């Protein structure tokens, strides 16, 4: 009985910590954090960099990508601290950047053009990958095994730049579905500012989705030796098909895609309760996205998605009967996985905030075991996660490089850890670069805006370049955070 009372006390205390405390906290400079979170993507660019690229230590790279196969695959993003262009996480990052702009762009102010540029850089590459060869989708550039055996600046890389594709004989519905979602979501971003470009993106999205659905299969099976273990699609491809159809409906308002959702939703996982969202698993995010149609437009047949979205949200709300214990560190950070946990923090934060927006527009609440949770409660929960990332945590450390007085200085990132080509014009070879990986000092180049893998289950963090599980940045960590940062930059006076 005493143990039960103790657990109840901890649960109640955690509830107050996560939902009530943020309203009393001193505001961070969310506008500055937003600007830096977008600048990070300029440091991840591959290809010919435009004038004014705001990561001044970066230079052009990968200028012949695809040339040996007579296709143009120049551009796009490096996923993390390496020099490979992986299609699945790149497409996911582009989708999340586009969703951020679509739902929270009105709060971005002067950063909106930069956010659109970040979306376009990813969408331009995905458009090339989807249209270069009829009946095929290019999904990767670079030999990951050879790349990871070197520590090279992207400007110096001389490892094989092989290209990998899926087609009718080697299907990849997972990566194709995510690419279709990214192109569709990006088309929404440019619907008013560049209608012709938006139309091209939407047309390509429709074609890629048709390919993904017609030739079903996982790219982890078709290209196992090349994409695994780096970005295997562990959740399969069903979630990406439903995700893509949902984005195509939002982008086109074509009833065909809603008919697809209603006809195949259960077959594609709509009935599953799931509690994490990542570059691999889109199930819960699809439900939140579809709930928007139910809450804002009263579209019939989507009640199931609202119900499952409620279950997911309630699992994160301490003090309710639906709360799943063990999902937070003692300091209040959402905790899902030991490796690169911050990716699950930023995706959950995005979904909580987006759902709060949809609930508010529909004048609805979430019922968590008989207790109503209002949109404002979800905003407070999301703010606690954002504030933890920016420095309100037991260590008093920002996990965004370049933000705040104390932040990680040894990101696991090749370009940031080595002298820039301007400071050291001479080539640094594959093996020679490892001296910089193992150096004790801070990185010579600040990877502005990068959010790293983050602390462990006990709020401990090792600022060690060799500890990639905690110190490596990734586009798919940053992309979901852009929307929440924009929201708080634009509304903090109201919620603080």
Automatic annotation (TrEMBL):
It comes from the Eukaryota. This is Uncharacterized protein. It comes from Avena sativa (Oat).
């Amino acid at each position: 009985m005493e143990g039960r009372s103790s657990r109840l006390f901890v649960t109640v205390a955690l509830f107050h910590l996560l939902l009530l405390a943020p309203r009393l906290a001193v505001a961070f400079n969310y506008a500055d954090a937003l600007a830096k979170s977008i600048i990070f993507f300029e440091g991840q660019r591959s290809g010919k960099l435009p004038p004014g690229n705001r990561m001044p230590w970066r230079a052009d790279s990968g200028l012949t990508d695809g040339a040996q196969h007579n296709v143009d695959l120049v551009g796009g993003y490096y996923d993390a601290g390496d020099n490979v262009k992986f299609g699945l996480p790149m497409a996911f990052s582009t989708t999340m950047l586009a969703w951020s702009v679509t739902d929270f762009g009105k709060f971005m102010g002067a950063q909106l053009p930069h956010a659109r540029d970040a979306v376009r850089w990813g969408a331009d590459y995905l458009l090339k990958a989807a249209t270069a060869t009829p009946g095929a989708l290019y999904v990767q550039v670079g030999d990951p095994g050879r790349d990871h055996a070197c520590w090279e600046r992207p400007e110096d890389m001389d490892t094989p730049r092989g290209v990998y594709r899926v087609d009718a004989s080697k299907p990849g519905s997972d990566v194709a579905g995510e690419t279709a979602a990214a192109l569709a979501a990006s088309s929404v971003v440019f619907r008013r500012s560049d209608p012709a470009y938006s139309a091209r993106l939407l047309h390509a999205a429709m074609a890629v989705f048709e390919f993904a659905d017609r030739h079903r299969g996982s790219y982890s099976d078709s290209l196992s030796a090349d994409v695994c273990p780096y970005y295997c699609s562990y959740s399969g491809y069903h979630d990406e098909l439903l995700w893509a159809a949902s984005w195509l409906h939002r982008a086109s308002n074509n009833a065909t895609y809603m008919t697809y959702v209603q006809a195949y939703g259960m077959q594609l996982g709509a009935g599953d309760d799931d509690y994490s969202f990542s570059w691999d698993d889109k199930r819960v995010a699809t439900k939140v996205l579809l709930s928007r149609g139910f809450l804002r437009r009263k579209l019939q047949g989507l009640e199931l998605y609202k119900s499952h979205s409620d279950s997911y949200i309630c699992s994160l709300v301490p003090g309710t009967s639906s709360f799943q214990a063990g999902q937070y560190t003692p300091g209040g950070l959402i905790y899902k996985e030991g490796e690169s946990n911050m990716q699950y923090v930023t995706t959950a934060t995005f979904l909580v905030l987006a759902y709060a927006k949809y609930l508010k527009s529909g004048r609805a609440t979430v019922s968590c075991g008989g207790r109503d949770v209002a949109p404002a409660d979800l905003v407070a929960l999301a703010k606690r996660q954002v504030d933890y990332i920016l420095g309100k945590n037991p260590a008093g450390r920002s996990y965004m490089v370049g933000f705040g007085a104390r932040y990680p200085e040894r990101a696991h990132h090749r370009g940031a850890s080595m002298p820039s080509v301007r400071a050291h014009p001479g080539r640094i070879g594959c093996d020679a670069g490892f001296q910089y990986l193992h150096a004790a000092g801070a990185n010579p180049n600040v990877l502005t805006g990068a959010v790293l893998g983050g602390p462990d289950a006990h709020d401990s963090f090792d600022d060690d370049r060799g500890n990639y599980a905690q110190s490596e940045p990734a586009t798919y960590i940053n992309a979901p955070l852009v929307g929440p940062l924009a929201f708080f930059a634009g509304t903090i006076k109201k919620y603080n």
